[in-house]
Amino acid sequence: MNIKIIVNGVNGRMGSTIARLVQEDSSLELSGVVEKMDRLQGLEKYGCPHGNDLSEILTSTGKCVVIDFTAPEASVNVAQKCAQNKAGAVIGTTGLNPDQLDQLEKLALETPIFWAPNMSVGINVLLRLMPQLLDLLGNRYDLEIMEIHHRFKKDAPSGTALKLAQVLAASKGLSLENHGVFSRKGIIGEREDNDIGVQTLRGGDVVGDHTVYFLGPGERIEVTHRAHSRETFAQGAIRAAKWLDGKNPGRLYTMADMLA
């Protein structure tokens, strides 16, 4: 039996890409698409139930997985409705605050929920490798991260850059809250040994570039991931939806769970 998928925010850049890829996948069924009231025009082209009320579509669809790349508050609302209807949820929204993440973790006790700030398989492999590289290099290397995204991205730094910084900080036994440096200006003095710099660039139509710098005495290592297309993230979300199907609730699932 095909896995039923509902795409929330289907007229967005990510939503439309995901819906198209779902329709091209013979193991999936696009069972519903959802948009805000002022963006409903054209949804009939998907040939499935559509509208602005996710709860209504969930009620008529039955067992399914909702894929959502919208905004923090909206994504929490999606998770709540999925929990009420015992549907799975794959959320790729970035910019969630600690309270919103806490809400997702609580809702994941009621229904299967998967969340990742970056659905790229490559980025998540990189997250696993960074601690090993840092361990091999030792403590004489300064750590900096630079990320570039398109001019329309609303949150900064990106969720991926923050996750990379958190992984590096944890590997050094540090708190990113205490050692993260997110901008530099003026006479700020010498760099502290345990600083982890995270710098943000915005412009053009860049899908997403992330570079981690290991800056040492007499040399530097640069590890860069570049996303060439949104399909990278859409394919990751679809892979997550397939993986999530049939999973039990109990905790908030991540890419680390899927890759393991």
Beta percentage is 15-25%
The level 1 CATH classification of the largest domain is Alpha Beta
Query: Rounded to an integer, what's the Rg over CA atoms?
Result: 20 Å
Average pLDDT taken over every residue: 95
Q: Compute the number of strand runs.
A: 11
Structural class comes to alpha/beta
CATH architecture of the largest domain: 3-Layer(aba) Sandwich
Across the major sheet, the strand order is: 3-2-1-4-5-6
In total, the number of domains comes to 2
Task: Name the overall outline.
Answer: elongated
Portion in helices: 25-40%
Descriptive report:
With about 260 residues, the chain is an alpha/beta fold. It folds into 2 domains: about 5-120 and about 230-260, Rossmann fold, CATH 3.40.50; about 120-225, Dihydrodipicolinate Reductase, domain 2. The protein is about 35% helix and about 25% strand. The strands form 2 sheets. A 6-stranded parallel beta sheet has the order 3-2-1-4-5-6, sandwiched between helices. Strands 8-9-7-10-11 form a 5-stranded mixed beta sheet. Strand 5, helix 4 (about 100-105) and strand 6 (about 115) form a beta-alpha-beta unit. About 40% of the residues are buried.
Offer a quick outline of the entry:
With 260 residues, the chain is α/β, with parallel strands linked by helices. It has helices spanning 13-24, 54-61, 72-85, 98-107, 121-137, 159-171, 176-179, 231-244, 255-259; strands at residues 3-8, 28-34, 50-51, 65-68, 88-91, 113-115, 142-149, 180-181, 196-202, 208-216, 219-227. It contains nine helices and eleven strands.
